[in-house]
Amino acid sequence: MHAPACLAGGARDKPALEVAELLRDHLDAVLREPLSSAQRAAVRALLRCRTAQLGGHLDACAACGFSRPSYNSCRDRHCPKCQGLAQARWVRARMQRVLRTHHFHVVFTLPAELRSLALRNRSLVFELLMKAAADSLLELGRDPKWLGAPAQLGITAVLHTWTRELAFHPHVHCIVTGGGLAIDGSRWVAASGEFLFPVRVLAALFRGKVLDGLARARRDGKLRLGPEDEGRAAARRSDALHRASWIVYAKRPFGGPEQVYRYLGRYTHRVAISNSRLVSATNEIVTFRTRGDHTAALPPLVFLRRFLQHVLPHGFVKIRHYGLLASGNVTTRLERARALLGGGGAEREHLPADQESDPDEAWSERLADGAAVDLSPCPSCGAHAVQRGPLPSHHPTSARAPPEVAA
Question: Contact at 8 Å (CB) between 82 and 75?
Fold first, then answer.
């Protein structure tokens, strides 16, 4: 079931600017770009999101007769307006599996020299990046040199492909248990250091796995190569990549599962840019916030081109679980680890305070979706007497209607 859009006058006003509006205003230019089928599907979804094309409900006040349509969301994973509810549900479900131990946040980054190759081979390189990051962590966990005994870690990995300026920058965020279940299942082996593993060791292992995977893919003819991937230039780049120190960033451990709960939501369903970061837009320039009070300004087509380069390939899974959290271990080794650590997942049924709001979705929308009722007051008279009836989907004929995008 689609989530209904909230009534005006709810907890948060609609952003002044939206990515969908920019797409609508510059659609002809966008469609002249060499878009993939996944990118075209994302454009089509964003243009239709919360418009009459997807149908919805008519919200009418029984007290004063005021009425207005509430249109359905597209639920596309790249849509800035549709991630709040999905994020809240996902985090709540995952917290049933969070172990009561400290956790680490480790970030694995693909070097800049390989980004052009990644743009031409998105699925292959993204898959390799996520697998190499997880395998590096799991391999060091099994080595008794680092934890004192061979152990299996629990890992949740999330792929991101952007910087705050929307540049292409593939990297993987890993939330990792502070220790693991002994291989024989007899005890929990805790990590006692300030960081899980030495960053240099982790980075070297990660580098080897990525470069080895790319070499195999090249031998098997699975890589789409560019001019810079051939001849002496490619050989020099390969040598430099083998010698360079790759960037792996490790943060200090979280205190407990409640901190993990808050932190997961910051990464799992984030999109390249939220509507709330858009500052202004003209026919010449789009201005958006980056970090703190800083902003960036780009021509509209450049901005939209950068936004669309972060659309993932069809079917690519950007949130994955490894080790104890892998699906094959959920009812066996994960339960054993839970018993050893004492207790289950987090007991709270609701999101913490800092996750109860999202720039693009009001709290009333989440409640309405979950309870099939609208709890927001009538924006005209203030009465809590809003009734909801279905609206069929149709294609409006007005000048403001979202244009069709060919599949």
Answer: yes
Which secondary structure element, helix H or strand E, spans residue 275, and what is its range? none
CB 54 within 8 Å of CB 332: no
Q: Are 365 and 85 in contact (CB under 8 A)?
A: yes
- Per DSSP (E only), the strands in 121-251 are 151-152, 154-162, 168-177, 179-182, 188-190, 248-250
Residue found by looking up tokens 């040598």 in the block: 239
- Give the Cα-Cα-Cα angle 215, 219, 225 (nearest 5 degrees): 75
Listing DSSP states for 219-239 in one string gives HTT-----GGGSHHHHHHHHH
**Contact, 399 vs 66, CB < 8 A?**
no
The pairing of beta strand 295-298 with beta strand 286-289: antiparallel
26-78 residue pLDDT tens: 999 999 999 999 999 999 999 999 888 888 878 788 878 787 787 888 989 99
Q: Which residues contact 89 (CB under 8 A, 6 or more apart)?
A: none
Give the relative orientation of helices 257-264 and 83-94 as an angle to the nearest 10 degrees.
160
Opening angle at CA 312, ends 311 and 318, nearest 5: 130
Per-residue pLDDT of 4-30, as tens digits, reads: 333 333 333 556 799 999 999 999 999
Task: Quote the CA–CA distance of 47 and 45 in Å, as a whole number.
Answer: 5
The structure tokens listed for 260 are 């993990």
Number of other CB atoms surrounding residue 247 within 10 Å = 16
Block residue for tokens 């009465």? 383
Query: CB of 147 within 8 A of CB of 106?
Result: no
| DSSP for residue 318 | -
User: What are the strands, taking DSSP E only, across 16-121?
Assistant: 56-61, 67-71, 103-109
* Cβ-based neighbour number of residue 390 at 10 Å: 8
Going by DSSP bridges, is the β-strand pair 286-289/278-281 parallel, antiparallel, or unpaired? antiparallel
Q: What is the dihedral of CA 47, 49, 52, 54, to 10 degrees?
A: 110
- d(CA 30, CA 313) in angstroms, rounded, equals 18
Closest CA to 358 of 268, 247, 288: 268
DSSP category for residue 72: B
> Can you say how many angstroms the Cα of residue 348 is from the centroid of all Cα atoms in its chain?
23
Sheet containing 151-152, strands listed edge to edge, beginning at the edge strand earlier in sequence: 151-152, 179-182, 188-190
User: What pTM, to 2 d.p., does this model score?
Assistant: 0.82
* Rounded to 5°, angle at Cα 92 from 86 and 98: 130
CB contact at 8 A, 258 and 352: yes
